[in-house]
Specification:
The structure is a homodimer. By secondary structure, the first copy, chain A, is an alpha/beta fold. The first copy, chain A, is 24% helix and 31% strand. Chain A has 8 helices and 14 strands.
């Protein structure tokens, strides 16, 4: 506690920390420049999709995408945000003089019975819905629900497409840092803890930065999603079997996954891509690695047939379980 | 989940993550080189205090300080550790061939009724007990309890002394990062969130790195602790009133606190100091800043009389509440 004479700092209510906790997540996302600048650029360079159009922003957060759309000339924007941050978004929109254009709807998009102003259809759905390796903790289901209920037949999803990529990878730095450290700690052998450290590492996919030079093959494109066409049921299970042609000597510790999303329209305009791969600037999604229970030495001669399956969890449809099997 | 053919990764029990969580805290502390190397150096350079002596290590963790003591020739070391990590420490000690010298006592030091092998007194108590700004979440009370109950009249506490320092500081980078960011977010005015951001920042002391050039006066030594003499009751409330002579133009945002601990003995040997101040390499304690509800422009002419009080919390004696008052 910080107290100063009669000007004591006080905390007003218990909601406060929750709301700040949520704000810090939005801060992290806003400070992710490749992410936010890709949306800004996509909207600015495709003003023909927004000018005088009706837009829905699913999961609007602080309202930044709605504001970009309004600045690109949208006639009306519905900023759908079910969490507490909706109140903040409304204030931000007002402070930016855009309350006449943007209406914040503070409910789940699935719960909207009718849109204000007698609107029946929207022309563009914008949303930043992507999770780790695209699908984990993503909001894509909600965005597709909104599309099926509210999108005009000639409407556009923005982003319009998404791709998932995979490549075998050498994670020696991770293992050196987290496992190797314990072998000699200031001259003391602490390898007794290594089984626990390894079990923890292998218990879940690893989310972190993988350097481009640690990929052991060219990226393999394992899934394409057309946001204008895919159905929610298509997202239940995604499986891909591919042969990964090793391109350098290394130690295979796992398979690295990442994605990109594409902003393009059949109505023309400029295509913008948001990349999250090892060959592009770091984003808050980083990369996701399925670590193998044991490592293998590999070299240029090797071709590795692997099936990667992403299964929507029974308990939480926003969570996926990753599995990996050698063989096609 | 990562699955591979018939070699599926399994998680065995719920204790597991707890124990890993705890391990990661020990990893952080072990990887703090200024901290661990100061203890190693202090013990290695003062072998006369350890050779053929009986040592108690309070809060032994992974057992590293006990092992340093054993390697410096201790006759017997009692490694007192009440948490689960005690089992790991025992395995590490065994792997390093030191089970004959080091005995792990997996209980709170306050609960020890008698020491093994008929030992009545110890010659040296080693412990890494320090918390943020020395006292917050520290184990000093337990270490003093151990001293009063088990230390020989000619015994040595190691570290033997501690000092707390303070200086007014300019935190412009912190305010720019956490407050200024919201003023212009990709051209959008998000200053609506600033009151919440500021309230959150001021609601508790800030723990982070303060650069030496952001201090606005020379460090003022506000408390000295002689670990061989101080009593537990002396730690209830620590107050210091000092005048801080501003040495440069800047903006006063708060008062920075840090500490050092000293390893020295009346029995001679080499003094070693573990520093955690802005003018020394970063440690996991970083620095602690009491932020003021408002900032002030200051310049070389200014002398700032301030009383800083550290009050042991009624609810949790390991927590302190900081308060700051202008005036002496």
């Amino acid at each position: 506690m910080c107290e100063q004479n009669d000007d004591t700092v006080e905390i007003n209510n218990t909601d406060y920390f929750e709301s700040y906790g949520q704000l810090s997540v939005h801060e992290l996302m806003l400070k992710d420049k490749p992410r936010t600048l890709a949306y800004m650029e996509a909207i600015q360079k495709n003003q023909h999709l927004f000018k005088d159009k009706i837009i829905m922003d699913v999961g609007a957060g602080t309202g930044i995408l709605s504001i970009f759309a309004a600045k690109s000339g949208a006639k009306r924007v519905f900023a759908v945000e079910a969490s507490n941050i909706a109140h903040t978004a409304r204030k931000i929109i007002s402070d930016n003089g855009l309350s006449d254009v943007i209406t914040v709807l503070d409910e789940r998009v699935e719960d909207i019975q009718e849109l204000p102003f007698g609107v029946r259809q929207v022309d563009v759905i914008i949303s930043e819905w992507m999770g780790f390796y695209l699908l984990h903790e993503s909001m894509l289901n909600s965005v597709l629900f909104a599309r099926d209920k509210w999108m005009s037949p000639n409407g556009t999803m923005f982003p319009s497409h998404a791709n998932i990529y995979a490549a075998p990878c050498d994670m020696r730095e991770l293992f050196n840092d987290t496992v190797g450290f314990w072998q000699d700690v200031y001259g003391v052998n602490m390898s007794a803890v290594i089984p626990d450290v390894v079990s923890n590492l292998l218990s879940k996919p690893y989310v972190g930065i993988v350097k481009q030079n640690r990929l052991l093959s060219k990226p393999v494109h394992i899934h394409s999603i057309d946001c204008n066409k895919i159905s929610i049921s298509d997202l239940q299970t995604l499986t891909n079997s591919s042969v990964y042609q090793v391109c350098k000597v290394g130690v295979l510790h796992g398979f690295c996954l990442w994605f990109d999303v594409i902003f393009s329209s059949t109505l023309g305009g400029e295509t913008v891509v948001l990349h999250t791969g090892p060959d592009h600037p770091e984003t808050h999604w980083k990369q996701t690695v399925i670590l193998l229970p044991q490592s293998f030495d590999v070299s240029e001669e090797d071709a590795i047939p692997v099936t990667i399956t992403m299964d929507s969890s029974q308990d939480n449809h926003r969570h996926y379980e990753l599995s990996l099997e050698f063989g096609e």
